[in-house]
Amino acid sequence: MTILKLDDKIIINKIEKNTRFNFIYKKSIMKNNKKILIKTAAVVLCLITVFSFTFSCFSDKRYSIGSYVVTDENGQDILSAQEAGEKISVAPEGAVLTTIKIVNGMGYIKYDGVYGWVDLSKLSYRPDTPSVIDGDIENLKSIEISSLPDKVVYTQGDTPETDGLAVTAVFSSDGKETRQKVTGYTISFPDMDSYGEKRVTVYYGGKTAGFEITVKKIPVSYITVTLPTKTVFALGEPVSFDGMKVRAFYSDGRDSGLGILLDKDDYTVVGVKEGDASLKSGSYTVTVKYLYDEITASFHIYVEKTSVVSLLLTSAPKNMYIYQGQTFNQNDFKISAADSSGAVTEVTDFDLDYDNTEVGSHTGTISYGGRKIYFSYEVRKLEETGIEVSTGIGIGNFAGSPVNFSGLKVYAVYNSGERKEISDYEIDYDFNPSVPGEYKATVFHGDFSAEFSYTVADVNSVILGDVDLNGEVNSLDARLTLRYSASLTTLKYAQRKAADVDANGKITALDARKILRASAKLEPLT
């Protein structure tokens, strides 16, 4: 299709008017009336002048075929028709719209897979912006991710975010490359319901680029099962799990330490199928799984042949108390069962049922073969008693570089003796990161604090391969590097820089080998 410019239309109009002038002129000669000819010609010339002036005033000459950019932060409506058209799409701020034709200040474009009209008075004409038609961008060579999103680590089920993402288009023309930040690109996110390392793809003008994100497992620590109303069944009786409740406990505190009651659709039951009436007499293990294979809880059901008459608790844990969230070790309970035949046997596949969330004195239940016995225990309040900072890890940076606390690990210490890594702490320090030296910084968490050392290393004083920083490269440096690569020792910041002789950001046995060969003068380090 040939697109005529506005000036072309004006020329065609003038040609049409001139043709009519010639016709009138000939007619006038035939009448041989010179006065009529002169008057008619004058009138026609006036009409042509007025028509041309009017057309120029009300034409679209002030708009040009080319690229326009949406500058309104709310975007720009794309309409199905020039006047009072239905909105069929919205072009966001920064989108490049290329006109195919222009009528009465409205531009006909293709955007978002549809053709439509847009009000050019609300757009910014950009003669230097590449034209975009049918997805192809003039002189576009490639695109780059110039800034990653603020969030690249997610948990399963999270909604992906793009805040902070910046995309740059690379154009090539006449052998020169130019770069321009662009918007209006399309992003394809991977499945967020499974965990692992995943790739996000960005599309713009037929080119692609991408970046990696991490989707972590949901931080569930364990689950507990409240036994079904019935766990002993007669031969031929269908198995029922009515009354069973499953709670999930999480490490990120979302359950406030009380667990979250799960729906039946949230977990699976294996080992015994509900409704099964074909089980032979005996004991069966029922396992409840939640999210991952390692997150399980089990209990037993029984199909009677001989009935259990009584249970006896022959041995109990030395300490009959636990702290909130803790569990008893079932092996510390010794249970004997007497059946209707008079036999007494020790059993291990019994079920323990107790509350570990509410502080105070409680009564727990031991169930086996349809019989129950009870035991008393105490739940003590779990309280934080202090914090600890990982020791022996070299935290620091080189002089003149920003303060860097990567590698720091902080643990909350509880009255139960447990230690849990935390991240909601604050760090206070008062030193100049441009001056080499060993400094102290303080971690605060709640009412507790702890100090740790921060090294500002002199880049000129670090010798590659001199891991013990004694000024020499020898076999002891190789040994230190090898032990660090096997997680048998820790190194300070400057030591780690000296050990990474291949400068790949990792300290491995290959670095240790290079240092050892260099110490024996078999090969240089660089």
Q: Topology, please?
A:
Elements: H1 6-31, H2 34-58, E1 67-70, E2 76-79, E3 87-91, E4 96-98, E5 101-103, E6 106-111, E7 114-119, E8 123-125, E9 132-133, E10 136-137, E11 140-147, E12 153-155, E13 166-173, E14 176-182, E15 186-188, E16 196-204, E17 207-216, E18 220-226, E19 232-233, E20 245-250, E21 260-261, E22 268-270, E23 282-290, E24 292-303, E25 308-315, E26 321-323, E27 334-339, E28 344-347, E29 351-353, E30 360-368, E31 371-380, E32 384-389, E33 396-398, E34 410-414, E35 419-422, E36 426-429, E37 437-445, E38 448-457, H3 475-485, H4 493-499, H5 509-519
Parallel strand pairs: 12-17, 19-24, 26-31, 33-38
Antiparallel strand pairs: 1-4, 1-8, 2-3, 5-6, 6-7, 9-10, 11-13, 13-14, 15-16, 16-17, 18-20, 20-21, 22-23, 23-24, 25-27, 27-28, 29-30, 30-31, 32-34, 34-35, 36-37, 37-38
Textual characterization of the structure:
The structure is a single chain. With about 525 residues, this protein is of the alpha+beta class. The chain has a four-stranded mixed beta sheet with strand order 12-17-16-15, with no helix packed on it. It has a four-stranded mixed beta sheet with strand order 19-24-23-22, with no helix packed on it. The protein has a four-stranded mixed beta sheet with strand order 26-31-30-29, with no helix packed on it. The longest helix has 26 residues, at about 5-30. It is flat, with a radius of gyration of 40 Å. The chain starts with 5 loop residues before the first helix and ends in a 7-residue tail after the last helix.
